Each structure stands twice: as C-alpha cells, then as structure tokens.
Amino acid sequence: MPIKVAVIGAGSIGFTRALMKDTLSVPEFADAVFQFHDINAQNLDMITQLAKRDIKANKIPAKVLATTNRRQALEGADFVLNTTRIGGLEAFQMDVDIPLKYGVDQCVGDTLCIGGIMYGQRNIPQILAFCKDIREVAAPDCLFLNYANPNAMNTWAANQYGGVPTLGLCHGVQGGHWQICEVIQLLINGSKKPEDKGFKRVTAKDVDIICAGINHQTWYVQVQYQGADWTGRLLEGFQKHPYYSKTEKVRIDMLKRFGYYTTESNGHVSEYVAWYRKRPAELQQWIDLGNWIDGETGGYLRVCTEGRNWFETDFPNWLKGKPEVFSPETRGHEHASYIMEGLKTGRTYRGHFNMVNDGCITNLPDDAIVEVPAYVDRNGISVPQVGDLPLGCAAICSASISVQRLAVEAAVHGDVDLLKQAVLMDPLTSAVCTPPEISQMVDEMLVAQAKWLPQYKALVPAAKARFAAEVKLGTRSTEGAARLHTKTVAEMKQNAEEARKNAAAGDKAMAKRKEGTAKALKKGAAKS
After folding, report:
1. How confident is the model at residue 505 (pLDDT cuts 50, 70, 90)?
2. Among the CATH numbers 3.30.70.940, 3.90.110.10, 3.50.50.60, 3.40.1830.10, which is that of 89-116+174-528?
3. Which residue in 21, 131, 196, 373 has its CB near the most CB atoms, within 10 A?
4. Of the residues 102, 225, 272, 349, which is catalytic?
C-alpha cells in the first residue's frame, strides 16, 4: 500500500513542496498520497496546483489531495507533518512589536523570549487538537513530525499531553555542520585558492559531528576530521573566516566563552541569552544587517511578509516556471523524508532529532525535549546515550528548559500565573524588563491575541481590566535598534528574480547565506 503523508499548514510558500519533493525522490514512495490541509483555502489551492504540476512533470503515480477539513486530511495517515503558524503574520507582528514598547528587541521571536513564549501559547492548544484527531482517525502507528516553532514546546506538549509519538525536526544542525566544514577547509588550505593544485575540499561527508542540547541551543560537542577532533580549533577558524567572522559574532563570542559552537544562527542565539540584545546602543556590534538571520530586528517577520505578498502577486508566473525535479541529486536535507524512508525501507538514517530526553543527556531533566543523535531503520528510532553536556552548555540549556516547562504547563492549563513566571524566567526578557513591566506586557499580549488563545478565554477580561487600570509601562516608541524597511510589491518588482527566489526558498536564509559565503570567499581569495 502506498504511504499517506498528511501536511497540516500546507499553504506555506516553499516548505511544503520541498518536503514533498524530498519524499518523492525515494523510489519506493513514487506512489505516495499527499494530503494537504490548511485553513487558508487560497494559499492551499495555489500550493496544490504547483505540487500537481511537479508530479505530472516527473511522470510518477503519486497523488496530491487538498482539503480544509483537518480530520479528512488525517484519516489513515501514516505520517503527519506540521508546518503551521497559528495566528499567521498578524499575531507574529504582535510578538515583535508589543515587546518593543517594553524594550525587548527580538530578531525572530518564535522559540524563546516573550515572542516565542506567546507563540507557544497559540500553538499548543492546536497541537493537542491535532493529536486528538491523529489518535482517532490516523493509522495506528502514525508518527507526528513537527516542524513548527516553538519546536521544543510543541513537541513537549504533543508527547506529554497529546498521546502521539512525536519528533521535532529542524535543520539547524545541518546548517552549522556546513559552516564547520568551510572553517576546517579554510584552516587546512591556508592561503591556497580553490583553483590551486593541492587545494583540499571538505564536505559534510568528511566531517563527523555529535550535537547535543535543546532545539536552537544544540552544541557541537565532537567534531572529527581525518580521525582528529577539531573542536578546539573552531574558534581560530571562525575568527579567520571572511564571512562568518562578520556575521556570526554572537556565536563566535559564545564559542570563545563556553568552548563549543552552537547550532542556531547569530540572530536567533542573540535572543535566547541575556547578554547581546539588552542594550539597544550596543546591539549593532553583535549583529550584521546583510542577512536578516544575522540579527535584524523583526527580520524573519519582514522576510515572511515580503514572501507572502510576493507569492500572492506573482503566482501566475510560478505556474509558468520550471517544475521541480524529483531525484536523489535534487533531494534536500530536511529530516522528514529520510525518517520515513528508514522506517519503511529499512535503510539506516542518522540524524539529530528533538525528542523526550529520558536519560539521553544525563545532566538535563528527563522530561525535557532534547536535540540529540538518533538512528532510524525498519526497527524504529534508536537513541544512543550522550552522557553529560559540558557544564556551561548544560547551564544555558537548563535555563531555557525551565522557561519551556513553565510555558507548556501554562498553555495546556490556561494558567496566567505560570505564563508570567515563564516570561520572568526568560533570560533576555528578564534582563530588560522589571517584574511589573513583564506582568503588564503579558496582559497586553493576552488581550491583543485573545482570539487565538482559547485556553485563556475566561481570564482575558481580568487581564484587560488590569491593563486598563495600570499606569502604562510600555511607553517606548521604537521600530527597534536594527529594523529594516519591509519592501512593497512594487519595490520587489524592481528585482523580481531575487524576490521570487526568496519567496520560494524553504529556508530563505540558507540560500542567501550560501550566496554571501561564496562571494566572501571569492573576495578573500582575490585579495590573498
């Protein structure tokens, strides 16, 4: 029987088609049935048209079905992929802009900090609703693969309260792995240029890594190349790199102080800890504005807004464009298709997944969601024991885990006190705000986002009354310390090819990062 893959939130601009392409690049899955679901019928229809065109061009028997009825989409599903953004860009805008009034400047705001915590409050009720439907109508051994942020919180809620086996998936480990390969290549070649005789290229196949931690705060605790551990030389390499030395200043500083490189981007990492974004006047020294992911205020909100507006405008041209090619050579690096392939065909896959700790990292709590190495084959998912994280890395993760646990419990039970405690414990928010400011900010966000927070329905009137009665503390009028202009469609039309590429990319930053790295290396080689 062909596998059935349901995608919740399938109206995402590029990610859905990329996941489908990866899956249909596996020969055994050529007859797979994809069931797309989204509450936005217009986006769902556009993505479905493109997906059907791609399948037809590749001449395979796979099918794509689309529905706005979630239970219909999940019925009989072997795998369920979640790519939803509950509240859409409207709520996302609030996650960024309301905290700015209180002095909290975020680059993304979808994992930790006040934005990530509120995002979790919106997501988790729906995660539990998804799980209920999966239990009732999906295949008995259905696996829930969560790509949606806040990844750890969503995966925590699904496993502890949803009653469905769930893995959280993220490409942060792969992205940092590629960076490390470039750094090692730089160190072993010295002043040699790629065209010089004896120049050695270093790829991900050459460098073996072990990563462990929590999503977006995972650490490369072992980096082996040609039988030697290169962990101790990474700082030298990143400081010498012509591109990363400018764009990864936060990650390099943390590597310098804690001894290990972390997976997530400069902008993301800067909002998970207390040290880099708390003083607006000093923020610029830690970030780079060449790419949103390097620290721009509200950067991800900007590129998502531009991408959505461009896609809706430019869709007829997308249909005229070249279809995707399904092949091993064009297959991407997202974990989902490899996990499905391992479970169904028996081919072993090693990746890094987010799952319940249960003793894997011995100095982090057992109930936490950790990101660790695992192996997949026909026998299931096998997780080797990592042991202790380095103490400093474990301390950073432990602080975030406390925030996540409080936020999950608040979201599940609709508990405003726990929600405020989660925000009080958040490293960056607490570095910027006083307890009264945090309390008022949470009330303001509860009122503003009430329509996406069913668990707080009975408590929103009291939050509204408190907010109305108090002297206003969120009085800053600012766009942020590093905010860039969101382009209009007319402005994007001046460079339509770039706009189309950004909107199509499953990971917009990755495409631009690779392009920027290539330019920097070429420039560096020309100077040398």
Report:
1. low
2. 3.90.110.10
3. 21
4. 272
